[in-house]
């Protein structure tokens, strides 16, 4: 094999490696940034015009109050699933939610936001209270028994997957979109992870106006 031919083969192989790496990265990021379409579509069909994500699950707020799915009814809501050991998506999104509310000013007074843990084994009431307190007094942390959280995650069509880390510990891959519900608990849309701020604020404002 000539030197020029060997060089060509190497370039082709490196190109294949780069494409494979990009595909793997896109697939992983896609699992974080959007809800599983089939699951969400199925849950929307089941809800029809009723409350989205309704179920028999029982949760606990970061202040220790026992609640159920009726907590998502009465005010327009933003609902985000994550976990307190999340390295980037969760802190970024919670900071974004507080920023959106700040930008809406008084129009956000009749809205509510929730951070639902996908890692109830580690995210106790005390842990959630400290964590959400770093970002906003307007975000309500929700945790509960693992089986209750699992039931809620299923009811909402949310993607979660535990991944063990080298050296111990684990991460939780999860849907990174923010769900929007109107005051009747009906599905109003989603806001994608790191969506353009102006677009996100416009969505939240429409939700506030819809009531």
Automatic annotation (TrEMBL):
This is Cytochrome oxidase biogenesis protein Sco1/SenC/PrrC, putative copper metallochaperone. PROSITE patterns: THIOREDOXIN_2 (PS51352). Belongs to the SCO1/2 family. SUPFAM superfamilies: Thioredoxin-like. It comes from the Bacteria. It comes from Pelagibacterium halotolerans (strain DSM 22347 / JCM 15775 / CGMCC 1.7692 / B2). One of its GO terms (molecular function) is metal ion binding. Residues 30-211 form the Thioredoxin domain. The lineage of its organism: Bacteria, Pseudomonadati, Pseudomonadota, Alphaproteobacteria, Hyphomicrobiales. Pfam families: SCO1-SenC. Cu cation binds at residues 86, 90, 174.
């Amino acid at each position: 094999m000539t030197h020029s031919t060997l060089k060509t083969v190497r370039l082709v192989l490196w190109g294949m490696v780069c494409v494979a790496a990009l595909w793997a990265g896109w697939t992983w990021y896609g699992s974080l940034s959007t809800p599983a379409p089939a699951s969400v579509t199925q849950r929307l069909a089941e809800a029809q015009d009723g409350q989205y994500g309704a179920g028999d699950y029982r949760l606990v707020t970061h202040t220790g109050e026992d609640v159920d799915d009726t907590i998502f009814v009465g005010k327009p809501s933003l609902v985000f699933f994550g976990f307190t050991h999340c390295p980037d998506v969760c802190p970024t999104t919670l900071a974004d939610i507080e920023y959106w509310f700040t930008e809406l000013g008084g129009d956000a007074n009749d809205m509510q936001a929730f951070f639902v843990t996908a890692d109830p084994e580690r995210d106790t009431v005390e842990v959630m209270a400290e964590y959400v307190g770093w970002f906003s007094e307007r975000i309500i942390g929700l945790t509960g028994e693992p089986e209750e959280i699992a039931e809620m995650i299923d009811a909402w069509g949310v993607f979660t997957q535990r991944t063990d880390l080298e050296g111990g510990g684990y991460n939780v891959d999860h849907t990174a979109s923010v769900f929007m519900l109107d005051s009747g608990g009906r599905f109003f849309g989603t806001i994608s992870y790191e969506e353009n701020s102006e677009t996100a604020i416009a969505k939240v404002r429409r939700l506030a106006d819809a009531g």
